[in-house]
Design brief:
3 domains; Endonuclease, Chain A; two-stranded parallel sheet
């Protein structure tokens, strides 16, 4: 009898835990699809589901990891905000007539993230590591005051050690060098590269350091940004991490071809990237970095003709700003939308935006990987193909290698180049950053590059796709059920 009573008590306790978890999920999760996914996990796989939810399902927007304010004085904060809006309005008055249709997108990024609109920027598109890294190394060698670097993946390999050597040289010469590396993505540099950098005078800190007790949760919220800011004048951002895999070289026969896109920005468009770096630094470093004039030295005079903003979001933002900016940009397109992304799980909101655009007569083309490094993510993405193609969206799968670029081009006028994939992880969990460039010259260059990439891709035939056997469709349908969690 005593044994039976203990079993009964355990069953009651277990049932109460499941009910409490379900109530917590309903209360704490804003997204209906994520709520249903977590409830399904908890009910059908109770122990596993509860573990997964408490590891990765916490509503971070209710429990921000940190505040993005770098000025704690509220009066000063309001003054800075007024100045940003005033300068942005002044810049907006210089925008070419054909770009005035993007006013709502400009206002969205101003109101949601206080991202300044800046003009007179020079934009250089860098394809793959073989174009990016020489430009980065040259810019670092020219640094006189400071070098700020923030990366998701920094590898202990050939290019990683080349950059390390130059950073150490500049630090010994008196240049302020600060490095933020993601503690999960850049784990290969913890034991050797980081101590060597520190010994040379480089300040280096891991972002959201992984601790054993909080391992799963901290792996979930990663800093996926790739930012370099030099002397407050030049910046680099985009999809390319510091790793040899991004360099396509004849010296590495048999290496998988990596297709990616980065951007070099010269001008005041770098200011918001510098702001993001300072915020991230103050979160993870032992010292507080006070904003100073030398960090924002980009010449306001003519560097180029590009007008731009930065879209950034993560567990520090009130809203999924990057997702909102993409939806707004898609809704403002009039002729053509060209999207490249390595991971595509759009969710219902972005899916609807793309379908509405296609049904409205706008040409929508997606370029996705032919082979992915994640079978489940790939399967979940493929589950959306039928809905998209039935609305008229064209889908191509890249065949030459692995396409890792995260870009969007609209009407040969607007370009988005950044770190964010089109999936829930980038929109909801990771720290991400995108450049939003209102410039016809840049957009025309990006459009040309997109169609060149299509030459190495295979178009998905909608009729053939519908005929696929059920055993191929089932893993995709199953993966889609869990897509809010991927």
């Amino acid at each position: 009898m005593q044994e039976i009573s203990w079993i009964l008590l355990l069953e009651i306790a277990y049932t109460l835990v499941v009910i409490a978890t379900c109530l917590r999920i309903i209360y704490d999760t804003n997204s209906t699809s994520k709520t249903l996914a977590y409830l399904m996990l908890t009910v059908f796989f109770p122990i596993l589901g509860i573990i997964i939810y408490f590891c990765v399902g916490t509503n971070y927007r209710k429990r921000k990891l940190y505040s993005k304010k770098i000025v704690n004085n509220e009066l000063m904060q309001r003054h800075i905000k007024k100045q940003i809006f005033r300068e942005s309005e002044k810049t907006w008055n210089t925008v070419p007539a054909e770009l005035l249709k993007y006013q709502k997108l400009v206002k969205l990024l101003l109101n949601d993230g206080m991202s300044n609109l800046s003009g007179n920027n020079k934009i250089e598109i860098l394809k793959n590591g073989e174009e990016k890294f020489p430009a980065v190394l040259e810019a670092i060698r020219q640094a006189k005051h400071h070098i700020h670097i923030e990366y998701y993946i920094y590898e202990d390999d050939e290019i990683g050690n080349q950059i390390k050597a130059v950073l150490m040289e500049k630090a010994r010469a008196g240049v302020q060098v600060r490095l933020i590396y993601d503690d999960f993505g850049s784990r290969s540099i913890r034991k050797k590269v980081v101590p060597e950098l520190i010994s040379a005078g480089v300040q280096a800190y891991p972002f959201y350091k992984i601790l054993f007790i909080a391992l799963a949760n901290r792996i979930n919220y990663r800093n996926h940004r790739k930012i370099i800011v030099i002397d407050g004048c030049i910046a680099f951002t985009g999809g390319i991490n510091v790793s040899d895999r991004y360099i396509n070289s004849s010296k590495r026969p048999g290496q998988l071809y990596w297709r990616d896109t980065h951007v070099k920005i010269t001008g005041p468009g770098i200011f918001y990237l510098q702001y993001l770096f300072i915020c991230d630094w103050n979160f993870c470093a032992d010292e507080e970095l006070i904003p100073q004039r030398d960090f924002f030295l980009a010449d306001q005079k003519q560097q180029g003709n590009a007008v731009m903003q930065i879209a950034a979001s993560g567990p520090d933002s009130d809203n999924p700003t990057i997702l909102f900016s993409l939806i707004q940009a898609i809704g403002m397109a009039e002729k053509e939308i060209l999207i490249t992304t390595p991971y595509f799980i759009p969710g219902e909101t972005l899916l609807d935006a793309l379908v509405v655009a296609a049904l409205s007569g706008i040409k929508v083309v997606l370029l996705l990987p032919g082979k992915s490094d994640s079978r489940m993510v790939s399967a979940a993405g493929k589950s959306y193909y039928g809905d998209l193609m039935s609305a008229g969206v064209e889908i191509y799968e890249y065949q030459k290698g692995f396409i890792h670029a995260k870009t969007m081009v609209s009407d040969e006028q607007l370009s988005v180049i950044g770190t964010a994939n089109m999936d829930n992880r980038s929109f909801e969990l990771n720290f991400e950053v995108n450049s939003v460039i209102y410039d016809s010259h840049t957009a025309q260059q990006m459009t040309k590059t997109f169609y060149q990439d299509l030459e190495d891709a295979q178009k998905i035939d909608p009729k053939e796709w519908e005929k696929r056997p059920l055993y191929k469709q089932f893993p995709e349908k199953l993966s889609r059920l869990f897509s809010p969690l991927l």
